[in-house]
Amino acid sequence: MSAGHDHGHGHAPATFNRAFAIGIALNIAFVAIEAWYGWQANSLALLADAGHNLSDVAGLVLAWGGTLAGKLRPDARHTYGWKRASILAAFFNAMLLLVAMGSLAWEAINRLGSPEATKGWTIITVAGIGIVVNTATAMLFMRGRKNDLNIRGAFLHMAADALVSLGVVIGGALYLWQGWAWIDPVMSLAIAVVIVLGTWGLFKQSLHLMFDGVPADVDLAAVRTLLLSLPGVGEVHDLHVWAMGTSETALTAHVVLNDQGTDASAVLHEAEHELHEHFEIHHVTLQLESPAYAELCALRAGSGCC
Question: d(Cα 87, Cα 94) in Å, to the nearest integer?
């Protein structure tokens, strides 16, 4: 006997299509402005940030594509649908940023050997616009950042960009104040470090989920304890928890009932309810077994945590 249910998530908007469309349009326009004035001002920091913002446009497109693919209905060929597309989008988004920042750091180190004069006021003005654009874009994804790794990636990138633009403003002000030509490549290196640090967690978490790792917000031992605490349950084995997508977690397990008189429907209902309430697990499939059947279950021996 099993229970398999798929509940919607009630904490985030049903769709971020409008947020993605607005965010992509804003950032494409800003990339064009920033690249032009970065070239005019001979500012590596502005050009680097424009390149990074261009990679963010690609990242937003990836995230949007992953979100849309994840909503495709299951069929006979893909029985879970395309939910994992959002995990892949988060992973490639992180990879894109890490590669872009490696290129930025390399160029900045080369520029340190021969720093060049820049136009401080142009840098300050354009980067100031960047603060506004990136902050506005980040706000579009704020509501979904806690419940969806893919949306969190989009939010973190835009929030980090706002901080980066602030750093560029500070660098331009220091250049005007002290005339330090080296401040531009130094700020570029600082930009790379900030973004790598902010992206590393997204990279590790998305890679973890790609290989069916237990989501970070789920304590597997606590899940097992909860199932064992249900009335009539004597044993739990072959327990698996994994992410179907960046906003949906699934669980399967074999649950052994001590007494044949136990109300199986009540066990299934309570298990589903408790897993939903305590761990945000919405797709639950349980196989209920008698002690006699469990003795013969090939998946029972040496089950450990699985």
Answer: 11
Q: Can you point out the beta strands (E) in 42-126?
A: none
CA atoms within 13 A on the CB side of 262: 22
The CATH 1.20.1510.10 portion of the chain extends over 5-210
pLDDT digits (tens, 9 = 90+) for 185-239: 787 788 788 778 878 888 898 999 999 999 988 999 999 999 999 999 999 999 9
How confident is the model over 76-103, as a mean pLDDT?
84
pLDDT value at residue 11: 47
Residues 6+ apart with CB under 8 A from 32: none
**For residue 52, pLDDT beyond 90:** no
What residue ranges of the chain are covered by domains with CATH 3.30.70.1350?
A: 220-296
CATH architecture of 220-296: 2-Layer Sandwich (3.30)
pLDDT at 6: 43
Helix, strand, coil share of the chain (percent; to 5): 65, 10, 25
The residue with tokens 């806690």 is 146
Identify which of 255, 160, 148 has the alpha carbon closest to the alpha carbon of residue 199: 160
- Specify the CATH class of 5-210 in words: mainly alpha
